[in-house]
């Protein structure tokens, strides 16, 4: 059974930092592309940061230079280091692992972790 478990969310003041973790089980995490998405109340889910199986990264413009995505394949874990947090970063953050093959697409989601940025 495949599981993605996010952790590390919480309440932080503006300008603060958090590190989110996405731990995978049941899959060989290293061969999957992984993305961190977020969804704020009343808004669509958006891709915040992604990392390929080869380690290439991409970010939405609003988080560039503040967030860093990384992976530790030995621990089957992907991280999202978030610095300089702003109130507009408040959302539920989700981890997604996906991989395309000739027989189909494998796509898995975690349950989400709440990040609240407020003074």
Short description:
This protein is mostly beta strands and 119 residues long. It has no helices and eleven strands.
Description:
- Strand 5 and strand 6 form a beta hairpin.
- With 119 residues, the chain is mostly beta strands.
- Estimate the strand proportion: over 45%
Compute the separation of the termini in Å.
Answer: 40 Å
Count of alpha/pi helices: 0
Order of helices and strands: EEEEEEEEEEE
How many beta-strand runs? Answer: 11
Largest beta-sheet characterization: 7 strands, mixed
Q: Show unreliable segments.
A: none
Share of helical residues: under 10%
The structural class is mainly beta
Round the Cα radius of gyration to an integer and report it.
14 Å
Shape: globular
What's the rounded overall pLDDT mean? Answer: 96
């Amino acid at each position: 059974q495949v599981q993605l478990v996010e952790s590390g969310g919480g309440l932080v003041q503006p300008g603060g930092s958090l590190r989110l973790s996405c731990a995978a089980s049941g899959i060989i995490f290293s061969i999957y592309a992984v993305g961190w998405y977020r969804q704020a109340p009343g808004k669509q889910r958006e891709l915040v940061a992604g990392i390929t199986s080869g380690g290439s990264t991409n970010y939405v413009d609003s988080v560039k230079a503040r967030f860093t995505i990384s992976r530790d394949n030995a621990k089957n874990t992907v991280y999202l280091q978030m610095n300089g947090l702003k109130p507009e970063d408040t959302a539920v953050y989700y981890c997604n692992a996906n991989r395309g093959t000739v027989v189909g697409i494998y796509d898995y989601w975690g349950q989400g972790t709440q990040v609240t940025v407020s003074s």
